[in-house]
Specification:
Blueprint (H helix, E strand, L loop, with lengths): L3 H8 L3 H16 L7 H7 L4 H12 L3 H19 L4 H7 L5 H12 L3 H8 L3
Helix pairs in contact: 2-4, 5-7
């Protein structure tokens, strides 16, 4: 069964809107330490804030904040498995200045504390 409402919403995005959102996505995921606001992004890319939020969610399936939180944590999980960097260093690399907030976000997304995740998933 096809969700017609989703299909109709997809058709409402213009090609330039989609390209802008893809550019914004690339910027957000390329430099995780940078945390621009919706307002800053909308001014920089000349796109209405509501259009930015709605189109991003339509393309990537989640609001920007939720998407970026999960993206950051999944990137941190890779670093925990593949590097010897401290949890604080990894937290900083993925955009968290506060290790406690990082640990809370990590548990929210992956349901396990970062130190425990590392113990269970360390690469030799």
């Amino acid at each position: 069964m096809i969700d017609v409402s989703k299909e109709k919403r997809r058709e409402l995005y213009t090609s330039p809107q989609v390209e802008i959102i893809k550019t914004i996505h690339k910027r957000l995921t390329s430099n995780l330490q940078e945390r621009p606001t919706i307002e800053e992004l909308s001014k920089e890319y000349l796109i209405n804030p509501t259009t930015l939020k709605d189109t991003f969610k339509g393309i990537y399936g989640q609001p920007i904040g939720t998407y970026m939180k999960e993206y950051r944590i999944r990137r941190a999980a890779v670093l925990l498995r593949q590097t010897q960097a401290t949890i604080a260093e990894i937290a900083n690399k993925v955009g968290y200045e506060n290790q406690s907030k990082f640990a809370t976000a990590f548990r929210d997304v992956l349901k396990i504390p970062p130190a425990e995740y590392r113990k269970q998933n360390v690469s030799d």
